[in-house]
Amino acid sequence: MKRAVRIIVSGTVQGVFFRQFCKEKADGLGLRGFVRNLTNGDVEIIIEGEEKAIKEMVEICRVGPRHSLIRDVQIEERKYSDDFKDFKALRM
Asked: What global pTM score does this model have?
């Protein structure tokens, strides 16, 4: 079943290659969407794909890359749109 979510990750998540980490993991899971830094220091991830892959990506975000320190992970359900062709690591 296809699903879409918005994930906000808080903590030490900028300057630790979090966006590149997410891109590599999302590509490996066949997810589409994007990751970007937010001005408040959080990271936002919008992903679409199979439910199992999304659940796995959420768990990956709870751990993060080496040197990150995850304080909080918020998940918000979104309407599946099928608008994304791939997964991108965006700049602010």
From this structure: 0.94
